Each structure stands twice: as structure tokens, then as C-alpha cells.
């Protein structure tokens, strides 16, 4: 699939009949907002963010933002997985929100994927987010194609560990987008209600989450860092959406023999750590 078609799937805003961005190049940044400690053991509902303001904080007003985070429960009224695809506001352009969110369908426990702007306004997200920001310019990117998984690690972990092996102590962060072109992947969606009893370990969290197997084609929004230089970073976080009603948080593919990936990535020039939790823990990072 050529890059043009991938961009079409990613950045064409049907409501506005406009391109959100022509690419993922120019002044690239990774931003990590908040963290899992604002979700677990219990939610901290004060932790909401405005991505137009975040774009200014990372010195890139008008940034084109992709990534993975928790949905803006303060506007939605429930918890969800969030797939930000946002052209933030600048002097020259009004902001456009092309994001998706996935929630657990209250009727049948299935996946319910919606385009955020179809019913909701604003540019929020909440609790935690891993973002890749750029000027949204066309330009040179790193193309990665992979098929037939032979090891245990997922696509993103393979790239992250390869980079860590090469660069060692020097942290390198990347973002962009990849397609699962063939096969199926294991995903999760957080329940619409935050847990009222504390979730204190991975086992508690896994009982709380809803797990799914989702089918290609899936558009994924990865952000990853080869190693943590001491900012309590989430090393990798990938959310995905589709045009057939499926979306959520990517774990790994479940069809090693038939899976096919096609991705476009860029390293980030800067990393911004925003609202880092003072008290932290290590569970709920899968
Ligand atoms: Zn997630």
C-alpha cells in the first residue's frame, strides 16, 4: 500500500472534507502526559489535558498529533481508549479533531468505535497519553515492512529493542503510524466505568480490562522510546482504529504465520515529559 493511501486512511477528515496533515515530518517531538498512576490503583479525575495547550507547551503550536491515551471522560462522560489524530490550533489554521475512541459497548460488551467529532467537541484527553507531534509536513520517513512473526515479541517491541541494541545508553524515541494489513491482533479496551475498588497489580488490571481479537486492516498509532532516561516513561504505547468498527490498545498479533505490517516512522528530536506522577508504580504498563 503506498504512503498516499495510508495517509488517506489516517488523515482525511470527511466532515471537514480536508486533509489534517500531509505527513509526519518537521520538528518531531514525543510527549508523555501524566501516567498510569493517575488511572491505577484509583482514578484521579483532576487529570485532564487540552491538546491545543499541550502543542504550545511542546513549543509547536499547530502540531499534528498522533498517539495513544485515555479518552476525555470529562467530555464523553465515560472512560475509553483514545486514538488522537489532531491538527492543533495555530495562528493560521483552526484546529481539527480527527480522533477516534473505543469503548466497551454497554449492550453486548463488544467494541464500539466512534469518531470523536461526530458527537463531541473539544480537544481533550485524560490521565495518560503518549503522543507523537510534528509539523505534519511531507518528507523522508522510515518505511518498515514485516510479515510472518517468528519470535515472541510484538512488532513495536522488536523495533524498540533493535534500536536499544544499536544505540545503547542513548535513548531514541520514535512515532508515526503502521498498518496491520493482514492477520489479527489482541487488544484491550478499558471499561466505561473506572474501578471503584483499588487495582493493585497486573492481575487486578487484567480482570478489569476487556480483551478482544481484532481483524486487519487496522491503523495503528505507535509511540516508543528505546529506554527510559529516568522520567518514568512508558516505553511503548500503541492504539489502533479501523474503518470496520474495531479499535483499542494493541498488545500483539495472534496470527504469526499470516500477519503483515507496513509502517512509517520518524525519530523525535525532543522528548517532553508533562505532569509526571510524583508517586509511581510499575504495573498496568502492558
Ligand atoms: Zn493504551
UniProtKB/TrEMBL annotation:
Residues 21-274 form the DUF1907 domain. Its main location: nucleus. SUPFAM superfamilies: AF0104/ALDC/Ptd012-like. It is found in: Nucleus. Keywords: Hydrolase, Metal-binding, Nucleus, Zinc. GO terms for molecular function: hydrolase activity. Monomer. PANTHER family: ESTER HYDROLASE C11ORF54, PTD012 PROTEIN. This is Ester hydrolase C11orf54 homolog isoform X2. The gene is C20H11orf54.
Amino acid at each position: 500500500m503506498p504512503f498516499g493511501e495510508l495517509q488517506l486512511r489516517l488523515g482525511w477528515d470527511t466532515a471537514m472534507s480536508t486533509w489534517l496533515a500531509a505527513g509526519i515530518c518537521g520538528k518531531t517531538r514525543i510527549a508523555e502526559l501524566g501516567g498510569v498512576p493517575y488511572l491505577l490503583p484509583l482514578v484521579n479525575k483532576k487529570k485532564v489535558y487540552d491538546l491545543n495547550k499541550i502543542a504550545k507547551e511542546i513549543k509547536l503550536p499547530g502540531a499534528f498529533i498522533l498517539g495513544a491515551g485515555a479518552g476525555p471522560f470529562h467530555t464523553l462522560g465515560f472512560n475509553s481508549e483514545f486514538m488522537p489524530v489532531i491538527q492543533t490550533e495555530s495562528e493560521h489554521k483552526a484546529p481539527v479533531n480527527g480522533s477516534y475512541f473505543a469503548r466497551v459497548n454497554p449492550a453486548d460488551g463488544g467494541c464500539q468505535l466512534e469518531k470523536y467529532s461526530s458527537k463531541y467537541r473539544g480537544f481533550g484527553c485524560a490521565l495518560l497519553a503518549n503522543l507523537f507531534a510534528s509539523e505534519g509536513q511531507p518528507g523522508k520517513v522510515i518505511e518498515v515492512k514485516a510479515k510472518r512473526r517468528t519470535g515472541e515479541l510484538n512488532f513495536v517491541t522488536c523495533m524498540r529493542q533493535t534500536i536499544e541494541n544499536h544505540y545503547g545508553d542513548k535513548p531514541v524515541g520514535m512515532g508515526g503510524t503502521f498498518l496491520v494489513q493482514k492477520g489479527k491482533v489482541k487488544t484491550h479496551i478499558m471499561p466505561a466505568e473506572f474501578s471503584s475498588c483499588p487495582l493493585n497489580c497486573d492481575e487486578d488490571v487484567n480482570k478489569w480490562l476487556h480483551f478482544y481479537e481484532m481483524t486487519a486492516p487496522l491503523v495503528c498509532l505507535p509511540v516508543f522510546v528505546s529506554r527510559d532516561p529516568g522520567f518514568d516513561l512508558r516505553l511503548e504505547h500503541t492504539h489502533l482504529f479501523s474503518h470496520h468498527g474495531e479499535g483499542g490498545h494493541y498488545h500483539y498479533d495472534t496470527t504469526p504465520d499470516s500477519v503483515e505490517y507496513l509502517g512509517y516512522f520518524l525519530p523525535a528530536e525532543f522528548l517532553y515529559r508533562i505532569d509526571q506522577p510524583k508517586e509511581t508504580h510499575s504495573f498496568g504498563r502492558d
